[in-house]
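Entry 14. Structure prediction run on the chain below.
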Amino acid sequence: MNQKELKDLIDFLVEKDITEFELERGDLKVRVKRGAETVAITAPSAPAPMQMAPADAGRSAAPTAPAVPSATAAAPAEPAEEAGLHIVKSPIVGTYYEAPSPGSPPFIKVGDEVSAGQVLCIVEAMKLMNEIESDVAGEVVKILVTNNQPIEYGQSLFAIRPR
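Output returned:
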């Protein structure tokens, strides 16, 4: 994908008021989410996106470099805050949902006691709803993501103090 195609795509998304879009073309993956002003462009070789982002005159490519490192830097910081907590991580990329359906109460909240195998949340990936279960019994100390948030593989979701 060249710079013109990327700019045309972003202009189209703005014109049609589309807030979230993801495109995969071979080894190139483009994900645009408006509102949080996050734009991520990834490819298997690191030089390709780095050459593309600084050369692009568009406003949206500028956040690419800071957005990716800050997200990866923040994830390891959370678990290190309090020793002895078990961190439940996402086994897949998708969208995090705290409840089984809109308007339903969340599966869990901070302070709840959970058992091993209990459903903690749902991660939607490719229109499939995947239940994420606790692998330990204990007390939910922190919920590290928000409802409807896009999440990555290995991202920390919950901090649980094991019993």
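The first strand starts at residue 20 and ends at 25.
Filed with the rest of this week's runs.
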